[in-house]
Amino acid sequence: MDRLKDKVAIITGGVAGIGLGVAECYVREGAKVVLTANHNVDGGKQAVEKFGEDKALFVQQDVANEESWQSVIDQTIDKFGKIDILVNNAGIGGTNSAIEDQSLEDWQKIIDINLTGNFLGEKYAIKAMKKYNDGNGSIINVSSVAGLIGLPLNPAYSATKGGTRLLSHATALQLAQQKVNIRVNSVHPGWIDTSIIPDAYREQIVSTIPVGHMGEPKDIGEICVYLGSDESKFANGAEFVVDGAQRA
């Protein structure tokens, strides 16, 4: 308990699935959380009711929109006064198709949300951490095992998750070389049991996981607790794979 006491975290896509799992772990450990989502407004309201208005804030956000990021930062500062942690979690799966059949529109949409959204999150969180938190903080970019190996029928998704991986490396190195105490790491989930997993494919998916079951959202939440806490003060520019030994 209290591993994140007095810390303030923004968690994008934080009202369902992995994002909500992260939020639950963060509140348990004493953090104040700002949860964002673009479409799931009801989920945001329910999360705030669950955690309490003194511990949580919901902001509707389009992560690919720069003004939307400015609004999230402003509302976070207005309510909690600072930002210690950013968890760039929001993302979409995209469409399964061969690359020659993928439309530019579909490609651009997933790039905008999954990769540009993370760039904007880093940009505005770093500015706010410098201004309101003495240049201290932790940025956690939720990538995927698909950022380490290719998905043959989802090239856009793999491209965004691989891009997020190297964005994390580059930003971590820049800040470290500048002697700015903001760490940047990436988390790479394998198959996590959320509502986006089609029931028809569950058995087939589980058969590919060496430990014999999918992970839970809190499995990602727990590694994010570590990365958001001072326990991980020397972890920077690193990749944390949580996949039940699938890549082992």
How would you describe the overall organization of this protein?
It comes from Lentilactobacillus kosonis. Belongs to the short-chain dehydrogenases/reductases (SDR) family. This is 3-oxoacyl-[acyl-carrier protein] reductase. GO terms for molecular function: 3-oxoacyl-[acyl-carrier-protein] reductase (NADPH) activity. The chain is 43% helix and 16% strand. It is α/β, with parallel strands linked by helices. The protein has a single domain (8-242), classed as NAD(P)-binding Rossmann-like Domain (Rossmann fold), CATH 3.40.50.720. Strands 3-2-1-4-5-6-7 form a seven-stranded parallel β-sheet, sandwiched between helices. Strand 4 (85-88), helix 4 and strand 5 form a beta-alpha-beta unit. The chain is globular and about 45 Å long.
